[in-house]
Amino acid sequence: MAASGSATPQNFCHQSEPQKSKQPSTRIPIGQQSKSWARYHLSPRFPCLHCFEWGHWVQDCKRKKAGLPAVKDPQKKNPNAILKKSSIFSHPCIAEVEVEDEEPLLSSIQQAPGYTSLVLLDSGATHHVTENATLFSEYKKIDLTLSVASAKQHLVVGKGIINLACPSGNLRLTEVLHCPNIPGTVISISKFVRNDGGVKFEEGLFKLIQNSCTHYSLLKGERWFLCLGSKMYCNAISDYSKDFLRLLHRRLAHLSLRTVRRMQRLQSARGLPPKIVTNDEHLCPSCSLAKSKHSPLQAESRQIVQAPGDMVVTDLMGPFPVSMDKKVYSLLVQDHYSSLTTFYPLKAKSEAANFMIGWIEKFNNLTKYTVKCLRSDNGGEFSSQCLKKYLDSKGIVHERTIPYKHHQAGKIERTNRTIAEAAQSMLVDSSLSIELWPYAFRQAVWVFNRVLHGTSILTPYQQVTGRTPDLTPLKIFGCKAYVHNLLHRKDLTPKARELIHIGISEDSKGWLFWDDARRQIVKGALAVFDENKRQVVKGRSLEVSTINIQNIFDPSMINKIGYQDEQVELMNVSASLHSDAPGSYGEGLASADQQKWREAISTEIASMDKMEVWTEVPKNVASSVLGTRWVFTVKRDPVGRVTQYKARIVVQGHRQIKGLNFDETFAPTPTFTSLQCLFAAASKFNWPVQTFDVTTAYLHSNVEEDVYVQPPPGMCLKEGAVLKLRKVLYGLKQAGRFWWKHLSSILRDMGFVSNQEDQSLYVYRMGNDVAMMWVHVDDGVLTANREQVMDCLKNDLQARLQLKWDKGIHSIVGVEVARDGGRFFLHQTALIDKVYGMLLYLAQATRPDIMFLVNYLARFLMGTTSKHWVALEHLINYLRGTRNKKLEIETDNREAGLKIFVDANWGGEGSRSQHGFIGFLWGAPISWNSKRQTCVASSACQAEYMARAGMWITQIMSAIQQGMVPALLPDNKAVIQIATNSGSRKNSRHIRREFHLINEMITMGQVSLDWVNSDEQKADIFTKKLGRQKVRQSMEKILLECFVEGSVNV
């Protein structure tokens, strides 16, 4: 019925044959038969499947090589034809093989306990066979006979489906025979291809592919096996699997697999796998992000050194972001001969000399070599008198590289890049905070010293110390670790602490761990590591959570509406005819639009002269001179049409020094909530609205410090003269602050008062006249209760600043605005067409329906997987399908004042609640948000009670209408009972004291709290994933409607 035993490429059904006279047999132990022996002795006993002639294999068939078609199977003409088969590749349970008359047969079947975790892959068997009845998930009793190569018959008692637990996942096999007398499990390759999946034979190994999961075989002796992941024996197979190579790659600071294979072949370190059988280079996302590079420059000749210490090279990198222990620079010291490298994190460059002296002393004392020459660049940290005196006293030559000739220190420069890329890869892979970069550098250097480089057959560590490095202490940087607590008390508290592994200790035998809760480094020698899970710091989740975004939009509708309407398409074609804005002054004068750029430059220079921006002064009076450059931009309207070519003189502010030419830099920026409040007020009272743009805004404000700059390219000055700024230029660190102070001063003189909650929203009140102004840098919106008030304020403002007024309102800060009587429609159609990277801006401005999903996906920015990209693509498709949706701001006289709907989804991921709110001013949506709670809410009542973030809207509107009492509308009655003091406080003591502020506000009459039915809760869309129907209902509740004919309603 079935035959197992052969691993030849052909599939045969074994049948019994007539007995022949036996010749003296030769017993050959398993594992000693070679493939050449098998080719010579077994090929005459099998037919060629191309010509069905005896004596050769298919690959040796002359008929096939000549390109002739295959001969039909003779068994089809004669069913009694006997096809014999032998077995040299058999199950490990077969003890040995007898060779009789050049025909190997199975002499015995024995149980082999050492191989119970292996499954034989047999290309000669016609059926899957197992002895283990517990593997079956579906089972049917049958009565059949199984024939094996030894001509023995075995009883088959059942058939069904089994699931094997393999290291790469479950493997499902169908039509598996249950034969209690056959030890172990056999997988038929031919049966697997027909019923269960696909098989590839590459690099001498079988790959079983099922449901996009690949299971790799193990070659032991002359047989192929599949390892079961549920047994300890599977640790042996992991050494040969891709999963282990990926693990090793991450442990070795993301070292290339080519170097790992070379080290394994040369046995350069202990702890490497005994054999690496794959040649596949896997794609590491962290390396792709951290190691992107330009094409390498051509290498130049190197100075030859004879022994360690003959030349030591050093280099300093930085500044980096400030670490947890205030380090900002990286100092690398490298022995040029061996490449042995040491890393020192520095707080200041001045520390480099002392660390350099300490390194030389240690090198001379701990090795049998002495330092003879030190090479460095011309940095001031290597030119100190302290270092010079020390080198002279030791007789060490100090070589300095020529400026801008980095190739003279090319080796240390390349090492710098290697270490930095490895450290960055580990930080990206682990999602740890950037403040831990010194420990990532230290781990990268530790690995660098213990792996091979270039053509050397010894590692740097071995070349200097003479000892083979040991890699067994190495663990994945950033993995979770359970560290034994030596101060553990004898009670029921845990005996270990869950920390984060960040490297190997240099001054003790143990590891370094990061305790994020206490923000401290911990040393430990007793720890259990979980390298399959990466820890998360400060709420940045890296684990792949199940993202089940409902199919709220029908993808088939995308084809009906298209990604862009005809108007935007034409604008894109028109825009593509214009070249991009030039990157420099020279490029601008050499571009196709040079005349327009010349005009823009002349306009800018004329503005400078008119505004008296600078004065010429001798260079010797300048304490520090900053550079300048031209920046060119093309200004477009919301649909992409070119409206203006702009040229700006920009100061290279990155060279400014705090305390010398700048001090404070803070300047407030407005919120969309205050803008929508302005539109709501204009809708409620039918006020006129106009937008304006301040021409050369920064040039109106004065500079308070002494700032000197070079003239921009193309501008001539007297020899030895520089420019002293009287007015602010773009690029200065304090430019935004000076402009804000200047504008605020002008508006105060006009009678405007800035709002305490949003300092970019100004309110004017004079008797019965009221006006509001919203300003974003140099763009603003003005509304007033009467046209006469508008004209008076416009004239007064025009006399103080250079303004351009638009008739009505069409767009502001990228948001398209349409007005229809008392209704305002806000949308960002063009932005949706380039939505990548702009989702949060879109959600905050005009699309509250995506706020929850945008905030949810933002949790995985540092650990993005394919699932997250699929979810993002789904969200973008939804936006494209609903791109014509507009946010309607229309007030309803039946709606009184401010209503804030609050909701919370208690017990989310990590037991943290997701709360959201949306505020309606006279029935118009003006503010919304969705946020994950930073603390764990222990009850649904507390989760609702903490969702009160929208109350500050009241402070904004109090300047327009006095006595407005906002109404908070949760759908949880318990929160109302606690907040109004009618509920029991005994069970609410777990709520932190600051959250009881709302109770005081209710008592003082500053806010009201009313219950709303869950079906009428408008904030539900901000707290959880909803289905299609509920999304449609929520969009109707928040007044997100489509008013363009032919669009799709979701």
From TrEMBL:
It catalyses: DNA(n) + a 2'-deoxyribonucleoside 5'-triphosphate = DNA(n+1) + diphosphate. It comes from the Eukaryota. GO terms for cellular component: nucleus. The keyword Thylakoid does not apply. Keywords: Aspartyl protease, Hydrolase, Metal-binding, Protease, RNA-binding, Transposition. The keyword Membrane does not apply. GO terms for molecular function: aspartic-type endopeptidase activity; DNA-directed DNA polymerase activity; metal ion binding; RNA binding; RNA-directed DNA polymerase activity. Residues 304-468 form the Integrase catalytic domain. Residues 1-30 are annotated as: Disordered. GO terms for biological process: DNA integration; proteolysis; transposition. InterPro entries: DNA/RNA_pol_sf, GAG-pre-integrase_dom, Integrase_cat-core, PolX-like_BBD, Retrotran_Ty1/copia-like, RNaseH-like_sf, RNaseH_sf, RVT_2. PANTHER family: INTEGRASE CATALYTIC DOMAIN-CONTAINING PROTEIN, TRANSPOSASE, PUTATIVE-RELATED. This is Integrase catalytic domain-containing protein. It comes from Austropuccinia psidii MF-1.
